[in-house]
Amino acid sequence: MSEKWTQLLRDYKLFLLIAIGVAALIVTIFFIGQTGQSEELASVAAVAPSSEQLEEGVPPSQSTEILVVDVKGAVTKPGLYQLAVGSRIQDAIVAAGGLTEAADSKSINLAQKVSDEGIVYVATKEEAVSIVPKQAGGDKETRAGLVRLNTATEADLQTISGIGAKRAADIIAYRETNGRFQSVDDLKNVPGIGGKSLENIRPYVTVD
Q1: Which residues contact 198 (CB under 8 A, 6 or more apart)?
Q2: What is the bridge-based pairing of β-strands 66-73 and 118-122?
Q3: CA 135 – CA 126 distance, rounded (Å)
Q4: Contact 88, 110 (CB under 8 A)
Q5: How many CA atoms lie within 13 A of 179 on its CB side?
Q6: Rounded CA Rg of the chain
Q7: What is the domain class of 147-206 according to CATH?
Q8: Distance between CA 97 and CA 80 in Å, rounded?
Q9: Three-class secondary structure of residue 86 per DSSP
Q10: Which of 53, 127, 169, 191 could form a Cys-Cys staple with 123, CB 3.0–4.6 A?
Q11: pLDDT at residue 174 above 90?
Q12: Hey, what CATH class is 66-130 in?
């Protein structure tokens, strides 16, 4: 009888040990699963935009490209302006506060696209020329009515504000003596034309 009880006790202990082992294994598997879920949630939370960012309208990444344009001439607020890629002269003028009363709206193409590092020059009604955006890197520039330094007559040159008969004659004389103008900056070599005069003349001439 005592041997039976001893055997039963041994069997019970063995069963108990097996049950404890199985329970420990289940607990371990459950704990590992919970840890993996926590790490995954933490990773997702790290890359997702916060609700505060979304409420303030701050995008999770800044992918919008911009370009910078120099708006000059007969606009309310001349200066440098940042515009979205694909913007047009109309957008640049609006950013600069619009045209002044003296602006010659017929001399500009409002539908033309602007480019990075470009210039938008709005002429007044008294001026005969308007410069539209210059492409970055020396690409083509759309010019309307610019005076060509290498072919202009004295009469042509005198249509530019600040150039009278004597200065026009000096420019022609320089060209005949030294050959073609290689750049607008060559005007500094003409007697009587300094840095300030050159900047006043530059928007209205070309060597093309």
Answers
A1: 184, 185, 187, 188
A2: parallel
A3: 26
A4: yes
A5: 2
A6: 39
A7: mainly alpha
A8: 12
A9: coil
A10: 127
A11: yes
A12: alpha beta
pLDDT digits (tens, 9 = 90+) for 43-87: 544 554 554 444 444 444 444 689 998 998 889 999 999 999 999
Q: Contact 88/114 with Cβ under 8 angstroms? A: yes
Domain with CATH 1.10.150.280 in the chain: 147-206
Residue whose C-alpha is closest to residue 199's, from 124, 134, 121, 117: 121
Tally DSSP H helices, then E strands, for the chain.
6, 7
The total of other beta-carbon atoms located within 10 Å of residue 149's CB is: 25
Per-residue pLDDT tens digits for 128-158: 444 444 444 443 344 446 888 998 898 889 8
Name the phi and psi angles at 11, rounded to 5: -60, -40
Q: How far is CA 104 from CA 101, 108, 134, in A?
A: 8, 8, 19
